[in-house]
Design goal:
about 20% strand, three-stranded antiparallel beta sheet, six-stranded mixed beta sheet, alpha+beta, Heat Shock Protein 90, RecG_C_sf, 10 helices
Length: about 300
């Protein structure tokens, strides 16, 4: 029987732990995935701590798919024109965060109750955390990530991921995460992914490639020409925060915008009104209670 040979069920046709993790309605509660887009550089973003927050449960395959969808929803893509084409400048490298998420779910310690894999996105970085340190007890920050041998805490789960094409058996995950970054336009040593671990946890830190980097670009998928030409740099930065909020919320008013921007209500109101005049946002309602939204 294939499922028995794969280690997903035992001889009594009962799900093994690996089989339960791969089941559509996984009964292992601590296998959940917590995803948060924080407002700022840490978890204390002010009046509005989180811009997006969701919890996923179910098969580890669905966790990979939902986790990647969350990351894509909360990342922006800049681009610049070149001869007869354009160069894309993503905030995060898909190959790198895919590898980090798969590794987190494949190698986490599922015996640690009350803890889950976390994706935390800040303005300047993304962190993917998993319970359980290195299987051999070493600290990853003390080792060369390119020479770490493959040690699988959950061999059955890792074998299934390998058969599905999600990961390889030869232990090249750390190298893939780093090399994915090295070919990006804004990459330098300060943008190199890093790893940290102790006895209890493992975290991959992937810098935002576009954070705090001067850019000469002529376009942006989240910025219209009217924003680029008619708004100051500060206004454009604040408008990006508002547009990001509207990616996951239907509407916004001056009060909410002021909390997001950590500015006075009248400042937020002026910016929203300007955005409406530039046709970036639509609005309805009276002046004091006006609500803004994107079409």
């Amino acid at each position: 029987m294939v499922k028995i040979s794969f280690g997903l069920v035992n001889e009594r046709c009962e799900l093994t732990n690996a089989g339960a993790l791969l089941a559509d309605e996984s009964p292992i509660r601590c296998s959940r995935l917590f995803c948060t887009r924080w407002n700022g550089l840490n978890k204390s973003g002010g009046a509005v701590d989180a811009l997006d927050d969701v919890e996923y449960s179910g098969s580890v395959i669905s966790l990979i798919e939902n986790g990647e969808a969350f990351i894509k929803r909360n990342c922006k893509m800049k681009w610049r024109k070149i001869a007869n084409s354009r160069e894309e400048m993503p905030e995060y490298v898909e190959r790198s965060y895919h590898e980090a998420l798969v590794n987190a779910l494949a190698h986490r310690d599922y015996l640690v109750n009350g803890s889950e894999v976390h994706i935390d996105i800040y303005d300047d970085r993304m962190e993917i955390y998993s319970p359980g340190g290195m299987p051999d007890g070493s600290m990853i920050q003390d080792r060369d990530p390119f020479t770490v041998a493959s040690t699988r805490r959950n061999p059955v789960l890792a074998d299934v991921f390998n058969r599905l094409g999600y990961m390889e058996r030869k232990g090249s995950g750390f190298g893939k995460i780093i090399s994915g970054y090295e070919f990006q336009i804004n990459y330098n040593e300060s943008k190199r992914p890093s790893f940290r671990s102790d006895r209890y946890e493992f975290t991959v830190v992937m810098p935002n490639l576009n954070y705090d980097v001067p850019q000469n670009f002529e376009g942006n998928e989240t910025m219209s020409e009217s924003m680029s030409e008619s708004m100051s740099e500060l206004e454009r930065t604040r408008m990006q925060i508002i547009l990001h909020y509207l990616d996951t919320n239907k509407e916004i008013n001056s009060s909410i915008a002021a909390k997001l921007l950590k500015a006075e209500i009248k400042t937020a109101s002026r910016l929203l009104s300007k955005a409406a005049k530039l046709d970036i946002l639509k609005s309805y309602g009276k002046t004091k209670n006006k609500v803004y939204f994107r079409e």
